TrEMBL record:
The keyword Magnesium applies. It comes from the Bacteria. It comes from Desulfobacter postgatei 2ac9. Mg(2+) binds at residues 323, 332. Belongs to the SELO family. Nucleotidyltransferase involved in the post-translational modification of proteins. It can catalyze the addition of adenosine monophosphate (AMP) or uridine monophosphate (UMP) to a protein, resulting in modifications known as AMPylation and UMPylation. Its EC number is 2.7.7.-, 2.7.7.108. This is Protein nucleotidyltransferase YdiU. ATP binds at residues 135, 137-138, 157, 169-170, 235, 242, 332. One of its GO terms (molecular function) is manganese ion binding. Pfam families: SelO. It catalyses: L-tyrosyl-[protein] + UTP = O-(5'-uridylyl)-L-tyrosyl-[protein] + diphosphate; L-tyrosyl-[protein] + ATP = O-(5'-adenylyl)-L-tyrosyl-[protein] + diphosphate; L-histidyl-[protein] + UTP = N(tele)-(5'-uridylyl)-L-histidyl-[protein] + diphosphate; L-threonyl-[protein] + ATP = 3-O-(5'-adenylyl)-L-threonyl-[protein] + diphosphate.
Length: 566
């Protein structure tokens, strides 16, 4: 019997059809850790000295239960929703890949990476103090394949321990998995590049304890240990290559730790170009020139990404180099949050500090870009001209970032050009008043002439003086907008840039709490609402979701801030 690949029109509805799309570029072109057991049963924390990946199998969830999948993303991949009814599909994506069959493999992989925080290299996070134990501790890729001409990697998060687990349990709890699952698809719906969500399963019998907050606690740090069911969410991306990963190989070159170090660095960078920049970089160019192109394109993607984050109120929270995807998309929804009351210093993660706060993300991104630049430099050591170009690209980061931010502000305000006075004036007023970031810009998208139209976005009544300042700013802005063309068109455009529906943590909390009790209604409702954030949606949805944060949730642990994200 010949196993032909399903045609473009056909939707894949069985696991047997699904596996036929398997195509393993990473495992087939990069180096496996020579010390790995090879059978995938390599689950204990240990040092990894060389190679690009460790073959490892996930640890299945006991008594798995289906929570949800992303219908939107299934559709993009050409998968039918029926696929989730196939027991073998459920088995694999809840962590038991023994059901895999050719051409899919019964083995997955985890990768090592290095860590830099805000441009400073760290090794002490690794239990061995060497950096050789740091990498995917609970993320295991299990599939790589080509769907409708596009290559995707599928990775289980919370799929059990790997050699990089640093003696932790390799698990993710349902709470963080629901958040990551919903956030990825919300980000995509907002038009912001991101890892995607495929499926979410929970165990009906295994729980792990994590530090968390008691009900209505105002504590900064968690004040109790809470048992939460373990879950596996599968996230999907063209690759999961991180800046920290390039750094790991570059550090090995610098330390001359083994004879293949420079070659392994070259291989991983070449693999990155292939996985993330194939359509943009001509791979017939000499390698040094490809690296220069890569630096240019990554800078463009990264600066645009961070401008988008500011546009929609997102704070990554922990923008280390190991959470910075070299494909230029959002990765690792752990300590993230979305700003409700506008605050440039917004940072929901208590461990994150000011340097990773909302408006400091351009600088944090530059620090990550700096580490990327440092990591690829050794590859150009013999090509002075290419090196010079690479250095110029690095030095142009701040200017490129600023341009993207200005472009974003102009678009957010419905203007054709950036007007520094308008934006600065607005920033001052937003900071002086207490304004809901999403509601404000959505109401502004109606292009009102009077400040009263914006009142529903204010948390407090303004003084008369402040109202007058607002009115004067609004008039100046309005005068500029009308110069730009047809108001109805400008308003429609602004509504495609300023979402109506925000991620409001106090509306997410009940969903994961309910899910913990086995009821997934709210999770699915949120999936629905957050999949069309720019649409008006029904009155019922508007009444429930287009609202200021209630007073009762201010400063509450687990809602307004959190210190544990796993
Ligand atoms: N429960 C756990 N067991 C094993 N390793 C863990 C666990 N929690 C976190 N880690 C590892 O600790 C490191 C830092 O954690 P962080 O919260 O940034 O990552 P994460 O959310 O697990 O991963 P990712 O960046 O893959 O989304 C990561 O390398 C991660 O794999
Ligand atoms: Mg991480």
């Amino acid at each position: 019997m010949s196993l032909s690949k399903p045609s473009a029109q056909q939707r894949i509805s069985t696991f047997d059809e699904f596996v036929r799309l398997a195509d393993y570029s990473l495992m087939d072109t990069l180096n496996a850790d020579p010390d790995a057991t090879g059978d995938g049963n390599d689950h204990r924390a240990r040092q990894v000295f060389s190679g690009h990946f460790v073959p490892v199998t996930p640890t299945p969830l006991p008594d798995p239960e289906y929570v949800t999948h992303s219908s939107t993303f299934f559709n993009e991949l050409g998968l039918s929703d029926e696929l989730v009814n196939d027991p073998k599909f459920c088995q694999v994506f809840s962590g038991d890949i023994s059901a895999a069959h050719k051409p899919m493999r019964k083995i997955g992989w985890a990768v090592g990476y290095a860590l830099s925080i805000y441009g400073t290299e760290y090794t002490h996070q690794c239990p061995f103090g060497t950096g050789n134990g740091y990498g995917d501790g609970r993320a295991i890729s299990v599939f790589e394949g080509v769907f409708k001409g596009q290559r995707w990697e599928m990775q289980l998060k919370g799929g059990g321990t790997t050699p990089y687990c640093r003696d932790a349990d390799g698990r993710a709890v349902l709470r963080s998995s629901v958040r990551e699952f919903l956030a990825q698809e919300y980000m995509h719906a907002l038009g912001v590049p991101t890892t995607r969500s495929l499926t979410l399963y929970v165990s009906k019998s295994e729980t792990v304890a994590r530090p968390w907050y008691s009900q209505d606690s105002y504590s900064t740090d968690p004040d109790i240990m809470v048992d939460n069911p373990v879950a596996i969410s599968t996230r999907v991306a063209p690759s999961f290559l991180r800046v920290g990963q390039l750094e790991l190989f570059a550090r090995r070159v610098r330390g001359n730790t083994h004879p293949r170090a420079l070659e392994e660095l070259r291989m991983i960078v070449s693999h990155l170009i292939d996985r993330e920049y194939q359509n943009d970089i001509n791979q017939d160019l000499v390698f040094a020139d490809q690296v220069v192109e890569l630096a240019k394109l990554f800078r463009r993607r990264l600066t645009s990404l961070v401008a988008n984050w500011q546009r929609i109120g997102y704070c990554q929270g922990n923008y280390n180099s190991d959470n910075c995807a070299t494909g230029g998309f959002t990765l690792d929804y752990g300590p993230f949050g979305f700003c409700e009351i506008f605050d440039p210093g917004f940072q929901p993660w208590t461990g994150g500090g000011e340097h990773f706060s909302f408006f400091n993300q351009p600088t944090a991104a530059e620090a990550n870009y700096h580490m990327f630049w440092t990591a690829v430099r050794p590859l150009l050591a013999k090509d002075a001209e290419a090196l010079k170009q690479l250095d110029q690209i690095r030095h142009g980061f701040a200017e490129a970032m600023q341009k993207q931010i200005q472009k974003m502000w102009a678009a957010k305000l419905g203007l054709t050009d950036y007007h520094p006075k308008i934006v600065q004036g607005l920033m001052q007023l937003l900071t002086k008043s207490e304004v809901d970031y999403t509601i404000f810009f959505r109401e502004l998208s109606h292009v009102p002439e009077n400040i009263s139209a914006l009142k529903k976005s204010f948390y407090r009544k303004n003084s008369q003086q402040l109202d007058e300042q607002w009115q004067s700013w609004l008039k100046n802005w309005h005068d500029l907008v009308i110069k730009g063309g047809h108001l109805a068109e400008i308003s429609a455009k602004m509504k495609q840039i300023n979402p109506k529906y925000a991620w409001r943590e106090w509306l997410i909390v009940p969903a994961y709490q309910q899910a913990t009790r086995g009821d997934y209604t709210l999770v699915r409702e949120l999936q629905e609402v957050l999949s069309s954030p720019y649409d008006e949606q029904s009155q019922r949805v508007e009444d429930k979701y287009y609202r200021l944060k209630p007073e009762a949730f201010f400063n509450v642990g687990g809602v307004s801030h959190y210190s544990c994200s796993s």
